[in-house]
Amino acid sequence: MVSAADHGTGGLTLGRGPAYPYAWYPTELQLQMMSTEAMQGQLRAVLDGGECTNGANDTCKSALLTSSKDLLAKYTNVTNVSDEEIPDLITQIGIAVGTRDLWNVMVELGHVISQRAAVGWTTMGHVGTDVNLYCKGPPTFERMCKGVHENTYVNKIMALYMGLLHQQELETLKHRNISVLENPIAF
């Protein structure tokens, strides 16, 4: 079995702000019992519910804000959203009510949680960092996977283990009308 990501994402930074040493509070993240994606699902139920049937109205926005605060209090260590955080959350909720898309509300909830943990994010997109490679199988195969590898090497590991490299060579030779021994003799 081989497991690897095609790219890294997020760009997590430990510590937040310009002052060194950078304080960060991992306990804040350890206390989180629901992902922001799951919170988004809970908020979807509110957005699709009775209070939001008339579209972008104050009742719907208020229900989403209350639900957001309740989710943070129940499933994270964020028991109160600060006055500085409220405007951004309200802005994203207003957009979500109009577009019916809660993505940016989910992101904003992540910002609120990250603020408490004092972690930052350089991007929500791809980053150029190395990704982990996990291999499980015969010891020879696992040894091939150890260490840091160029991404194209992962393909070679898999092809070699599955015996595909020889097969590719055979296909190339056949394509060139060169006779080949279909089943090589094992030594």
UniProtKB/TrEMBL annotation:
Cofactor(s) recorded in Swiss-Prot or TrEMBL: Zn(2+)
Cofactor descriptive note: Binds 2 Zn(2+) ions.
Class of the enzyme per the UniProt entry, highest EC level: hydrolase
An example Gene Ontology molecular-function term: metal ion binding
Domain of life: Eukaryota
Coiled coil regions, renumbered to chain: none
EC nos: 3.1.3.1
The entry's keywords: Metal-binding, Phosphoprotein, Zinc
InterPro entries recorded: Alkaline_phosphatase (IPR001952), Alkaline_phosphatase_core_sf (IPR017850)
Cross-referenced Gene3D superfamilies: Alkaline Phosphatase, subunit A (3.40.720.10)
Keyword Phosphoprotein attached: yes
Positions bound to Zn(2+): H126
Protein name per UniProt: alkaline phosphatase
Species in which this protein is naturally found: Plasmopara halstedii
Lineage, highest ranks first: Eukaryota, Sar, Stramenopiles, Oomycota, Peronosporomycetes
